């Protein structure tokens, strides 16, 4: 079945440093979704990328979808303590409209 | 307020005692899904439902059952819980299917002794 790998598993940064998490799928994705889960909370949708090579920005967050639609990245510029949490990518599974495969997540810690 | 609710939020039980975790959404979403979250493994899909009376297995369905008799409700049933089902469970709903933004419930932390 489809696999979605996400690295790194953990990232510790000083406030103000940049952060990037990478997501790789074993199959071509129709789209990729990104979610953020604050400590003790539930995943919250950030963005969806659909087009090959697509780049989207949300303030300090930049999301990219690879040309082959098999990889994606999330980059945060100048991290803040409010960025703390786990970031997940997720891709719909193959020909099924119901399956959604999540990456393992990257846990971001920001030291003030 | 648009939301997904789950009950209970916390549950400690013993091996073999049947339990049900309820999930309800008020957004009229066709699609609902259950996930379990374990450290280092991310979110793994247990079951999903494309609409009323339509359910299908996710990646880790063993030991779980679901039903979708009404559009708003999607309960998760553990008929004979085992310790390896100790986990954090999330219900989610979405318009249409997995291709769209998922709205998650607050989670249910289950411990099976």
Low-confidence stretches of chain B are none
Q: Measured on Cα atoms, how large is the radius of gyration of chain A?
A: 14 Å
Summing up helix and strand content along with how strands pair, one would put the structural category of chain B as mainly beta
Per DSSP E runs of 2 or more residues, the count of β-strands of chain A stands at: 11
Overall helicity of chain A: under 10%
Give average pLDDT of chain A, whole number.
95
- Can you summarize the main beta sheet of chain A? 6 strands, mixed
Based on CA atoms alone, the radius of gyration of chain B comes out at 13 Å
Q: Give the helix level of chain B as a range of percent.
A: under 10%
Distance between the termini of chain A: 41 Å
* Range of strand content of chain B: over 45%
**Which word captures the global form of chain B?**
globular
Shape of chain A: globular
Kindly report the average pLDDT value of chain B.
97
What would you note in describing this structure?
The complex is a heterodimer of chains A (112) and B (113). Chain A is an all-beta fold and 112 residues long. Chain A has strands at residues 4-7, 10-14, 19-25, 32-37, 43-49, 55-58, 61-65, 71-76, 85-92, 100-102, 106-111. In chain A, a hairpin with a 5-residue loop joins strand 4 and strand 5 (43-49). The N and C termini of chain A lie far apart (41 Å). Chain B is mostly beta strands and 113 residues long. Helix content of chain B is 0%, strand content 50%. Chain B is built from no helices and eleven strands. In chain B, a hairpin with a 2-residue loop joins strand 5 and strand 6 (54-57). At the A-B interface, strand 5, strand 9 and strand 10 of A face strand 4, strand 5 and strand 10 of B.
